[in-house]
Write a structure and sequence with these properties.
The structure holds two protein chains of two kinds. Chain A is α/β, with parallel strands linked by helices. Chain A is built from eight helices and eleven strands. In chain A, the strands form three sheets. A five-stranded parallel β-sheet of chain A has the order 2-1-3-4-5, sandwiched between helices. In chain A, strands 6-7-8-9 form a four-stranded antiparallel β-sheet, with no helix packed on it. In chain A, strands 10-11 form a two-stranded antiparallel sheet. In chain B, a hairpin with a 2-residue loop joins strand 13 and strand 14. Chain B is rod-shaped, with a radius of gyration of 55 Å. Classes of the chains: A alpha/beta, B alpha+beta. At the A-B interface, helix 1 of A face helix 4 and helix 5 of B.
C-alpha cells in the first residue's frame, strides 16, 4: 500500500515516514504544499496524510485541487486545528478522515488501515481465501493453521493482492502501490517478489492461490 | 447622586410649577383685590357725593337739611348689609346720622375741604366697614334758581359714609380659595402628564437595557437595534455599539491568540509523541534511540522558549513585569546574545558583524534588552540566506539611541514587513522550513520595547535587506 505524507514540521514528517515504512507501507513524503500536490496528482496513492498549514500551498487547497481533478484517493487530514468549523471544512472539501495533533501513532495506523479497507471494499480486518487467513491489523497470516513469516516487502505485496482478491492486477499497479520513490527501481522486482511469496505460501498438495494471468498481471484467489 | 432621572425630572417639575403658580396667583390676587376695592370705594364715593349734594343750608334760618328722598335711599335701610352715614358740623357736633346707626357714632374724619378721604377699614357692631369722609360747604337752600351770584355759606360740614364690606371680604376669600385649588389642580395634572411623558420617554432606555442584558461573551456580534429611539439616545446607542465592536474585536484577538497558542503547542507535542512512539514500536539499536531522544530534546527546547516568551507576554499584558534600570553597554549585550546563535549561524554559513561603538550606552533593563536583542538576532539567523550576513549598528538620535540590526536574503514583500510584529504572524502562514518558529519572537520584541519606553520598526531596504530599528531612550 502506497502512502503520501505532506507535513511541514520536520520531526513529525520524519517520524511518520519512518513509522509507516516500518509498518510495511510504501511512503513518499514532502514538507512543501506545491510539491505535495504534484506528488498526489502524478502517482496513484492509496492514502494521503495531509497537514493543513503548509508552506507553498494550504492543505485545504491541495485537497480541493485533488478532488477537482477527480482523484478518489483517500485523504486523512492531520492538523493542530481542532475547532468544529475546521473539521467540517476539511470533511466538506472531501477529506475521508480527520486526526488532531498530538495523536497516537497506533491510532494513525489504525485509521490508515481502515481507509485502505474502505478503498478496497473490505470491512473485515481479516480475510480468508481458501485455507489462507490474513489478519491485516496484526499483519500475520496462516495457511491451514500454520503461521507463515514474511518480510515487510513480501507482506506489503500480499496485502495489496489480498485487498483486491479475485481481481487481476497489473505489474504497474503493483509497482505503484507497493513501492515508493526510495525503492531501487528494477523492472522485474515485482516478478521476483511474487516468486518469493509463492515459495512461502503455496503448498505442493494444495490448490495454487497466486495465479499468473498472461500478459496482464497477477491475481490472488481460489480459481485458476 | 444616584437619584433616578424620573424622580429628578418630576421633582423639578413640581418645584418649578409651585414657584410659578405662587407668583402668578399672588399677582392675580393683588390685581383683582385692588380692582374690587377700587370699585367698592368708587361707589361709596359717589353715594357720599350724592348725599353731600342733597344737604342744603338755609341761610335764613341758618338750618341744615337733608333731602328726604336721599334719606329714604334703600342702602341706608338694609339691615343685613347696612350703609351708615353721619354728618358733623365744623365744631364736631353731630347734625345727622343714619337710622341704622342708632346711638353709635362713626369716627369723624379729618381732611381738607372738598376732598374725599378714604378711611382705613374698621369694624362697628362686628361688621367690617369701609368708609369715605368729605368736608364741604353745603349749598344755599333759597336761591336755587337765581341768576345773581349767591352768598355762600360759611358753614363747613363733614360727612362720612360707611358701608358693610363683608361681601367684598367674602369675594377675597373666594378668590384665594379659587387660586389655591386651581393651582393644586394644575400641579397634580401636570405631574400626571409629566409622569406619563417621562415613562414613555424612558421606554427606549428600558428597551436598550433589555437588549444589553442579553449580551454575553458568546454573542458579541450582537448590536443594539432598539428602533424609534429619540435622538438624544441615538448617540448613546451608537457609542454602545461602537464599544461592542471594540470588545468583539478584542475578544476575537484573544480567541485567535489562544487558538494560535494551542496550535503552536500541539504541533511540537505531536512531533515528540510521534517520534517516541515510532521509536518504541520495536527493539532498536541504541544509536536510533539516541537520535530519537535528541530530536525530542530539540523540540522540547523550542517549546520551552515559546512558553517563556508566552509568560513574558502575559506578564507584560498584566503589567506585572518589573524593570531594573542601569547603564548598559549595548555592544556587550549584543555580543552575549549572539553567543547563543553563533553555532546555528556557522552551520548556515551566516556571518555576524557587530559594528557598534563600544561606548554606546543607555539606561535600561539589561535582562529585557537582552531578550529583545536575542529575539531579533534569532529571527535574523533563521531568515538570512545561506552564506548571508547580519550586522548591527547604532546611532544617537536626540535623547534616544537607535540600534539597527539588518540581515540579507529577506524574501518578504513591503506589505508583509508591516505584519512582522503581529503575534503568530508568519510570512507563509506556516512554519518556516528551517524549523519551527512560533511567530512570537518579534511580537515580544515590540511589547518589551514599548514597555522600556522605546519603539521599534521594521523596514525593507533594497536587495532583500531587512532591518529592524530599535529606538530606546538614553535615560530611563
Amino acid at each position: 500500500m502506497r502512502l503520501l505524507v505532506i507535513e511541514d514540521y520536520p520531526p513529525l514528517q520524519q517520524s511518520l515516514t519512518k513509522g509507516l515504512r516500518e509498518a510495511d507501507f510504501a511512503v513518499d513524503s514532502t514538507r512543501d504544499g506545491k510539491e505535495g500536490l504534484w506528488y498526489a496528482t502524478s502517482n496513484e496513492y492509496d492514502v494521503i496524510i495531509l497537514d493543513l498549514m503548509l508552506p507553498g500551498m494550504n492543505g485545504l487547497d491541495i485537497l480541493k485541487k485533488i478532488r477537482a481533478k477527480g482523484l478518489k484517493t483517500h485523504v486523512l487530514i492531520l492538523t493542530a486545528k481542532d475547532t468544529v468549523e475546521d473539521r467540517v471544512a476539511g470533511l466538506n472539501f472531501g477529506a475521508d478522515d480527520y486526526l488532531i495533533k498530538p495523536f497516537a501513532f497506533e491510532e494513525l495506523l489504525a485509521r490508515v488501515r481502515a481507509l485502505l479497507r474502505r478503498k478496497y471494499r473490505e470491512k473485515n480486518p481479516s480475510i480468508r481465501i481458501k485455507d489462507l487467513r490474513i489478519d491485516f491489523a496484526a499483519q500475520r497470516l496462516w495457511r491451514g493453521g500454520e503461521e507463515i513469516q514474511l518480510t515487510a516487502r513480501e507482506y506489503a505485496l500480499l496485502e495489496y493482492l489480498a485487498m483486491r482478491a479475485g481481481e487481476t492486477i497489473s505489474r504497474a499497479d503493483i509497482w505503484e502501490h507497493v513501492y515508493d520513490f526510495n525503492s531501487s527501481a528494477s523492472s522485474n522486482v515485482v516478478d521476483v517478489y511474487i516468486g518469493y511469496l509463492r515459495k512461502k505460501i503455496e503448498r505442493p498438495n494444495k490448490p495454487a492461490l497466486i495465479h499468473t494471468v498472461r500478459g496482464r498481471g497477477y491475481r490472488l484467489g481460489a480459481q485458476p | 447622586m444616584t437619584r433616578s432621572l424620573r424622580s429628578r425630572f418630576l421633582t423639578g417639575t413640581i418645584v418649578g410649577m409651585i414657584l410659578l403658580l405662587t407668583v402668578f396667583s399672588l399677582i392675580i390676587y393683588i390685581v383683582i383685590r385692588s380692582t374690587l376695592i377700587k370699585q367698592f370705594d368708587r361707589s361709596l364715593a359717589s353715594i357720599t357725593q350724592v348725599l353731600a349734594a342733597s344737604i342744603e343750608h338755609d341761610l335764613d334760618d341758618n338750618k341744615i337739611e337733608l333731602e328726604f328722598e336721599v334719606q329714604q335711599m334703600p342702602e341706608f335701610h338694609n339691615v343685613e348689609h347696612p350703609t351708615y352715614y353721619q354728618l358733623w358740623t365744623d365744631d364736631s357736633d353731630v347734625l345727622a346720622r343714619s337710622p341704622l346707626l342708632g346711638t353709635n357714632d362713626l369716627v369723624r374724619p379729618e381732611g381738607s375741604p372738598n376732598k374725599l378721604v378714604f378711611m382705613q377699614p374698621f369694624e362697628k357692631n362686628g361688621i367690617p366697614l369701609r368708609a369715605v369722609g368729605l368736608t364741604f360747604v353745603p349749598r344755599n337752600a333759597d336761591n336755587e334758581e337765581a341768576d345773581a351770584p349767591l352768598p355762600t355759606s360759611e358753614q363747613f360740614l363733614t360727612l362720612m359714609v360707611a358701608r358693610d364690606a363683608s361681601d367684598l371680604l367674602g369675594q377675597f376669600t373666594f378668590l384665594r380659595w379659587l387660586l389655591l385649588i386651581a393651582s393644586a389642580a394644575v400641579i397634580i395634572l401636570s405631574l400626571l402628564i409629566a409622569a406619563i411623558i417621562v415613562r414613555k420617554g424612558l421606554n427606549p432606555l428600558n428597551a436598550i437595557a433589555t437588549e444589553i442584558a442579553t449580551i454575553t461573551e458568546d454573542n458579541l456580534t450582537m448590536r443594539i437595534t432598539a428602533e424609534h429611539v429619540p435622538e438624544e439616545i441615538i448617540p448613546i446607542k451608537n457609542r454602545l455599539n461602537e464599544l461592542m465592536s471594540r470588545l468583539e474585536a478584542s475578544f476575537n484577538r484573544e480567541r485567535q491568540f489562544n487558538a494560535d497558542v494551542a496550535h503552536e503547542l500541539r504541533t511540537p507535542l505531536a512531533g515528540i509523541r510521534s517520534t517516541i512512539e515510532v521509536a518504541l514500536t520495536r527493539t532498536r539499536e541504541s544509536a536510533e534511540y539516541q537520535q530519537a531522544m535528541s530530536e525530542c530534546l530539540e523540540i522540547t527546547k523550542t517549546m520551552q522558549s515559546m512558553v517563556s516568551n508566552l509568560l513574558i507576554l502575559a506578564g507584560l499584558d498584566a503589567q506585572q513585569t518589573s524593570f531594573d534600570t542601569e547603564p548598559v553597554k549595548i555592544v556587550e549585550v549584543i555580543d552575549s546574545c549572539w553567543n547563543s546563535f553563533s553555532e546555528k549561524a556557522r552551520k548556515r554559513d551566516v556571518t555576524f558583524d557587530n559594528r557598534l561603538d563600544p561606548d554606546t550606552t543607555c539606561e535600561t533593563d539589561r535582562q529585557n534588552l537582552s531578550i529583545i536583542l536575542s529575539n531579533i538576532l534569532e529571527n535574523a539567523v533563521v531568515y538570512t540566506d545561506k552564506g548571508g550576513n547580519i550586522w548591527a549598528t547604532a546611532s544617537r538620535k536626540d535623547d534616544a539611541v537607535e540600534i539597527s540590526i539588518s540581515n540579507t536574503g529577506c524574501q518578504l514583500t513591503t506589505d508583509q514587513v508591516a505584519h512582522v510584529f503581529d503575534c503568530f504572524w508568519q510570512a507563509d502562514s506556516a512554519r518556516s522550513s528551517a524549523g519551527i518558529h512560533s511567530g512570537l519572537g518579534l511580537a515580544l520584541v515590540r511589547k518589551l520595547t514599548v514597555a522600556l519606553g522605546g519603539h521599534v520598526a521594521a523596514e525593507l531596504q533594497s536587495e532583500g535587506i531587512f532591518t529592524i530599528r530599535l529606538n530606546l531612550p538614553i535615560k530611563s
